[in-house]
């Protein structure tokens, strides 16, 4: 999704900030949040008797990603409702040959990267933990590799969405992804409650 959000930033007022700089906020969020979550959030939940099994954390990560995409959809809607070109940024006569973006500050896009970073903090380590602990001893490596292969599945989905990567359809693209992520989060949460039990109880701290 980084390519899409970078393209979205190009439709906004950057005030000299390169539109491909904001994705660094994702990495910064992960670097800062991961140790904080591991050292403080999980122990705090543990002290309250709240379990955080892997699938529960994956579901939380999906919810955060859904929230990030919903926010991106809101930003895209704001861009489309702002001049000078409204639903066709940099593509109208008022944009002076594409030099003027719509009047929305690029800073408002920042929460997208914070939410994506937090999503990775919860979902990514938990996914690897789940596949490693549940795989048979003789198949741990191949199961881990297959889990990593899911990134290819994400790329295939991105390719399938390519026809929607144009104005004025970007709003629906972000909305659709947000809805799909929310549905996936609900499914994972249901599976978690079925296979990992209730939230309250003895907690096994995740290995990070």
From TrEMBL:
It is a multi-pass membrane protein. The keyword Translocase does not apply. The chain crosses the membrane at residues 25-45, 57-79, 142-162, 171-193. GO terms for molecular function: transmembrane transporter activity. It comes from the Eukaryota. It is found in: Membrane. Keywords: Membrane, Transmembrane, Transmembrane helix. One of its GO terms (cellular component) is membrane. Belongs to the major facilitator superfamily. Proton-dependent oligopeptide transporter (POT/PTR) (TC 2.A.17) family. PANTHER family: OLIGOPEPTIDE TRANSPORTER-RELATED. This is Oligopeptide transporter. It comes from Aspergillus pseudoviridinutans.
